[in-house]
Amino acid sequence: MDYPGNLFVVAAPSGAGKSSLVKTLMELDSHVQPSVSHTTRAPRGQEKHGREYFFVSETEFDAMVQANAFVEWAHVHNHRYGTSKKAIEERMSQGADVILEIDFQGALQIKQIFANAATIFILPPSWEELRSRLERRGEDSSEVIEVRLQNAALEMAQVQQFDFVIINESFDRAVFDLKSIVHAQRLKYLAQRRARAETFKALHIS
Ligand SMILES: Nc1nc2c(ncn2[C@@H]2O[C@H](COP(=O)(O)OP(=O)(O)O)[C@@H](O)[C@H]2O)c(=O)[nH]1
Ligand SMILES: Nc1ncnc2c1ncn2[C@@H]1O[C@H](COP(=O)(O)OP(=O)(O)O)[C@@H](O)[C@H]1O
């Protein structure tokens, strides 16, 4: 599929800092817009329906799967999460850059569909720091944190399948790296589109 906008996909183990990084990127760059996923997990403290996620029941999620409403969906940490077609296609067709914060299974599915998508994996600096970020965030019970840490090992084993890797040790440095990837990707596709337009012109194809 080909849209005028760019697609960025950010994956990371829980607690590595992807939501914080993506939020900061969007504050600095209004051309990057979020894709709001659907999930069957319950909202955390400050989360709002339609902002962080569309929080839906298992039945509602099933109905969307049946209706083929998702570009991708996956089971993550005992819940289901999915990117609806509506969440990305409308924005991308208008030329916006869309950023998806999804797990590695979804990221790899997106790359199959949108070959031009840039996939970015965020790593924490260490296991100890990952655990302490999850604890400091204070949003999940210790059981939930243990599940997330166990899943983190499997998730981190997928890192080599991603186009870019960022180590989120210094937050400012990681934001800079993310901004640089976005910038480089824009230039790359701009150059490709120009080259294609010139080829078409030379061949007298509109
Ligand atoms: N495949 C897929 N994964 C998603 C989607 N939305 C969120 N996720 C992932 O689900 C996992 C859990 O997300 P969340 O419950 O918000 O926890 P957090 O990662 O600790 O903030 C993370 O890896 C998210 O990136 C989606 O639409 N599709
Ligand atoms: N570079 C960093 N240094 C220290 N703490 C960080 C850093 N990046 C994020 N955090 C903190 O770690 C916790 C987890 O970050 P969050 O963005 O919620 O992660 P994720 O979305 O990957 O689960 C939050 O409390 C956040 O403020």
Automatic annotation (TrEMBL):
GO terms for cellular component: cytosol. Its EC number is 2.7.4.8. The keyword Transport does not apply. It holds the Pfam family Guanylate_kin. It is an enzyme of class 2 (transferase). It catalyses: GMP + ATP = GDP + ADP. Keywords: ATP-binding, Cytoplasm, Kinase, Nucleotide-binding, Transferase. Residues 5-183 form the Guanylate kinase-like domain. It is found in: Cytoplasm. One of its GO terms (molecular function) is GMP kinase activity. It comes from the Bacteria. The keyword Iron does not apply. InterPro entries: GK/Ca_channel_bsu (IPR008145), Guanylate_kin-like_dom (IPR008144), Guanylate_kinase (IPR017665), Guanylate_kinase_CS (IPR020590), P-loop_NTPase (IPR027417). Gene3D superfamilies: Guanylate Kinase phosphate binding domain, P-loop containing nucleotide triphosphate hydrolases. ATP binds at residues 12-19. PANTHER family: GUANYLATE KINASE, GUANYLATE KINASE-RELATED. Belongs to the guanylate kinase family. Essential for recycling GMP and indirectly, cGMP. This is Guanylate kinase. It comes from Rhodoferax antarcticus ANT.BR. The lineage of its organism: Bacteria, Pseudomonadati, Pseudomonadota, Betaproteobacteria, Burkholderiales.
